[in-house]
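Reopening this ticket.

The earlier resolution said the output was attached, but the attachment link was broken on my side. Pasting everything inline this time so it's all in one place.
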Amino acid sequence: MSLTPNRFGDALAAPLRLIPAPLSAWGRGWCGAVASILEAAAAKPGNVHPHAPFPDLTFSDLVAAGLAIAPALEAATEKPLGRTILDAVTAARSATRSNANLGIVLLVAPLAAVPDDRGPATPSAVEQVFGLLAAADAAAIWTAIQAARPGGLGTSSRWDLAGPPPPDIRAAMQVSAGHDTIARLWARGYDELFTGPVADLAAAIAAGVPLETAIIRCHLRQLARGADSLIARRHGEATAAEVSARAADLIAWEEDARWPEAVAAFDASLRQPRRLNPGTTADLVAAALYILLRDGRLQAALPFPTPPRSLASNP
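Inline output:
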């Protein structure tokens, strides 16, 4: 199931060369692009990766979307959050044929909006960013979500996407918080992102686990922690809970020589006979990668050369 380190590195080589030159290494836009590419390149069960496309979504699509959002993220401290999200989604839609990374944009943009003088992004720093949201932000974010046309959302009696924007975007997110992980993070804060995927990924990296394997483990642990919102929307809560239970079973196998084969079997079951894509889980992994890139904890684990942080832009 897992790519060898060389194959993982090879999959990254060409996309990384496409990162726009004006984006400084370790800056917001660079980290956004790299996080998107790393997440897409890792052979996570049920997701698109270089050797497992979907008919309507490929690794190249995900790379193009990740590169497209980088300039908007780079300027995130210079604009209102709503404008950053709308600019990023608009750019991604112009670069790809599908809703490739709306979830990543919604998760990473608030992190990128944390000013440099507040240090690395934390849940409390993100909460301060959310505290600045106004009606204009809500309108821009609503337009961005409508433009991305996410599938499986259905309709709602309050703040339906087919209708006008809400005056308070976090209030609208609260309506969906019970069944959508990204909405819950927006409504209730980023603590579970940091105590969940960020902590999982950081622990694996600190233990010397190769980066792709660490990403796959993070993906499985998050999937075991909570049902994937995309699977639940498209296939029902019972199916999403079953997928999470099977992911939880795999965690005990992590140090077993048979673990790759077990993960490969799980992956195959998510692709046939029906596509059970844990897309929201992938978005959370991308956000965790962004956080660890920005604060420097991922530098030594990257399978490609990077400038020293002391010579790069401020974290």
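Reporter confirms the inline version is readable. Residues 5-311 form a domain with the Triphosphoribosyl-dephospho-CoA protein fold (CATH 1.10.4200.10). The longest helix spans residues 59-74.
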